[in-house]
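G., the chain you wanted modeled:
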Amino acid sequence: MPPKAEDVPKNWPPALPYLRTPSHSSSLTPDHISSLRKRPNDTLSIPANTPKGPCPLVKITPITTPSHPANGQSGLFAAKDLKPGTFILQYLGEIHPTTSVHPDGSLPVDPHANSNYDLSLDRELGLGIDADKRGNEARFINDYRGVADKPNAEFKEIWDERRKERGMGVWVLPEGKSGKGKGVRKGEEILVSYGRGFWGARKGDGEG
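Predicted structure as tokens:
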């Protein structure tokens, strides 16, 4: 049965599963699960009043500006003014190992290696969150390059007290000593930095 309109955000792709909680890959080991359930020091918690389901702070909007690198696709825009340091929403997708061994024992392979929606959660343990096949509004956040002079938001690790589990969240940049975080005004696109690793891996692919 297809989801009801009120159960998914406006402009959500109808063929893509919408997540309210993270999805766990069947390839996760007991050690991975144990690590996910240990809160790292200094990790911020998701605010207790954060709703599950469509986020009221954002809206998915088709991009029609020819000069925008994501023209013809969609971006995530602020539905209201967001102050510096505001928690926006969690980045939901499939939590998975970044490498896994093929059943025949051949060299390790990473089925998520070519995904444009795969976010690193723990490099040391080899854990990622991939929103390619399923996710929430956060998968529509674009990189600031070619759109603005600098990002206005960032990815930061979070702790979900309700699930007792680590994850990644999207936050408005704080003000900071340099005043780099100005907040996000209603109607502005939420933009982050994908990082050099993302673009370096895609040189020659004709993307971005």
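The two ends are 36 Å apart (CA to CA).

Shout if anything looks off.
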